[in-house]
Amino acid sequence: MGTGRKKKKKKNKIILFTIEIVVLVALLVGLFIYSWMGKVDNSSGEDIRQEDPAMNIELDSETAEVLQGYTNIALFGIDNRESGKYESGNSDCIMIASINNDTKKVKLISVYRDTFLNVKDDTYGKINSAYSKGNGAKGAIAALNKNLNLDIVDYVVVDFGALVDAVDLLGGVELTLTDQEVQIMNDNYIDEINSVTNHNSSKLSGGGVHTVDGVQALAYCRIRYTAGNDFKRTERQRTVLTKMIEKAKGSGITTIGSMINSMIGEVSTSFSSADMLKLASDVMDYELADTHGWPFELCTGNYGTKGDLVVPTDLETNVKELHEYLFDEKNNVSTTVSGISDYIVNYTGCTASSATRLDNPLTGNDNTSTADTEYNMQEDGVE
After folding, report:
1. pTM of the full predicted structure?
2. Is it true that the peptide bond before 312 is cis, omega within 30 degrees of 0?
3. Which residues pair with 311 in a beta bridge?
4. I want to staple 350 with a disulfide (CB 3.0 to 4.6 A). Which of 3, 128, 181, 311 is the partner?
5. What is the rounded CA–CA span in Å between residue 29 and residue 282?
6. pLDDT digit string (tens) for 243-286?
7. Cα→Cα distances 265→31, 42, 56, Å
8. Which helix (H) or strand (E) holds 24?
9. What would the DSSP string read from start to end of 134-181?
């Protein structure tokens, strides 16, 4: 894609990037109240595996037993600017929330949007396309389960406006910003987000500690033109989520209720009222234990029609490590995962020994500079 075409695309887009900030605390405290009133799209409240045979999950008995101790939720931010439309668009923001049912500790994983995986049937591509190719959240969850050997059945989907509303209702969140980040927010994002959301947020002056409003927080979450590129951007998104959870837990139920009321038209979920009530009963006991990006070991490159890809090196290794990180168990992977892993190695030539980016929370290995420099993510919203 030429430079001129890129500029034209960017100029004509509104906001094709939807951040993966889903306000977990708000969901667990108050969403069930409004679902009873028919205001939230939760038409898929039953076990979605019963609705679609493609959702059948291939787990060995030991892995299935381990996962019974956790509630795993898929969180999607979709590339869609029509409020209330949740069946189409790429899920350019993908997060998995894993809740330990005994300890109430929550771990969050950001799945890099350009990760090369099996997105549907025999089709391979960027994982963010699984949402559109699979006709919504169910298809995207099916892809996550298939590639990552998981048992996810529940999801939350948000429009981009959810973050702006939630942060404003919390009274802002405190972030430590660099001069470079402030300049990029001011020059590239704040005016655009103001225009789309009908806000009038001001620009910031210089780096340092700032209490940012919703527009400014979204601008911060969208930054990718610094060292670390999209990898650093997902880290910023998890930072904002952490700050929001901390502040929400210190807020009163009235504030939480106002957040949910404002976000009603921007949320779709599989949770039934009973599910939400069960989760909400323990919400103040939840602790955000850790957040990280996945794959942990990877290489990057341009692969012709597939575009710029993040390639797990290799998938089987990364899935085993993901399970150890989330569930403290070295689970076996399915034969399906092994087959997908072999296909990815054969297609890309990237093996476990050829990783150019190491960011493994299990070992503390951190060698991120090479891949971060070489990786040039395509324009937001472009598969």
Report:
1. 0.76
2. no
3. 299
4. 311
5. 9
6. 887 787 677 666 666 666 666 566 677 876 556 555 555 556 77
7. 12, 12, 30
8. helix 24-36
9. TTTHHHHHHHHHHHHT----EEEEE-THHHHHHHHHTT-EEEEE-HHH
